[in-house]
Design goal:
By secondary structure, this protein is of the alpha/beta class. It is built from 9 helices and 15 strands. The protein has a 7-stranded parallel β-sheet, sandwiched between helices. The structure holds nicotinamide-adenine-dinucleotide and uridine-5'-diphosphate.
Length: 334
Amino acid sequence: MAIKRILVTGGAGFLGSHLCDRLVAQGHDVICLDNFFTSQKLNVAHLLGESNFELIRHDVTHPIWLEVDEIYNLACPASPVHYQFNAIKTVKTSVMGAINVLGLAKRVKAKVLQASTSEVYGDPDIHPQPESYRGSVNPIGPRACYDEGKRCAETLFFDYHRQNGVNIRVVRIFNTYGPRMHPYDGRVVSNFILQALAGEDITVYGDGGQTRSFCYVDDLIDGILAMMGGPDDFVGPVNLGNPGEFTIRELAGIIIEMTGSSSRIIEKPLPVDDPTQRRPDIDLAKQKLGWEPKVALRDGLARTIAYFRELDLSRYHRPTDYHYTGAGVTMGGH
Ligand code: NAD
Ligand code: UDP
């Protein structure tokens, strides 16, 4: 395989750090760019001594001049509590970030992949969600900064492709979990595992009847790499996720059982616009990329629980000082 120069924006984050690992192991020259909003250098510290790895502190809302062959655009807070913390900044990160990486891709003729999301489907009234479904998104609610930001980023990717011939790929990622999620990320899997390990109450939002489909990080990275390496006439968007669907209450029960915890389940207010169901239709990914996830929920959870058991929490700071009310996010206190 030819060695490529590859830029990973958001490369120090949960998914980005795993992607950097794989690309560095393949021998590519990897530039990891991050502003460390929802991550810490700790996630990629093990790569810093590698001669084919470079770390840049930079914010994707500002242009950057580099010479690369491929770009993976992952920079964006992914957890609702963090992307709602500074909603305007989230829109800027998605939209201006997309414009900046697409401008870079256009100038140096790089192939560029966008990490889009199942959130483009909003609170879906088609189930499971195929790529052809256009979504049901509230454009003025607390999740809109992320959902509409990501939708606009997709628009920009397709406009640069049509108008400027930029070689793009768009993947729509469904809930992914695994080692290196930030312990204070606020998403459901990390919250429940940390609460269970500490013997604290497990905070189920609403009655826990809402569903999500959880993909293990290794499977997801396989899918992203398959899409980037796939044929130029298949630019996406393509769903990447695990079609296994669980209620949030079921997830809480499984994590309590697997950790042997004595935690109780308590209910907290359901966040505004929290999607009631979510499951990817992955037929397109199977057909076009020969990709499907392999890791069952319990196997992935076992690896994630083992990671969090060993984690030294004192080395992590909270990305934002959020207070979760169910009606959105307010600053200050917990
Ligand atoms: P994450 O929060 O761990 O990683 C995001 C990274 O982007 C962090 O390192 C953060 O510091 C960085 N970042 C944020 N704003 C930035 C900016 N303005 N400039 C530079 N860097 C910035 O989240 P993740 O789960 O690794 O998500 C990675 C990407 O995948 C995101 O774009 C997210 O929207 C997308 N995604 C993730 C999931 C999931 O379940 N993990 C689902 C759908 C989509
Ligand atoms: N959730 C929960 N307790 C938590 C965190 C999240 O019940 O401590 C719920 C949340 O309301 C949503 C689901 O779990 O229904 C997944 O939330 P997450 O923040 O992981 O991501 P989302 O899929 O909503 O973007």
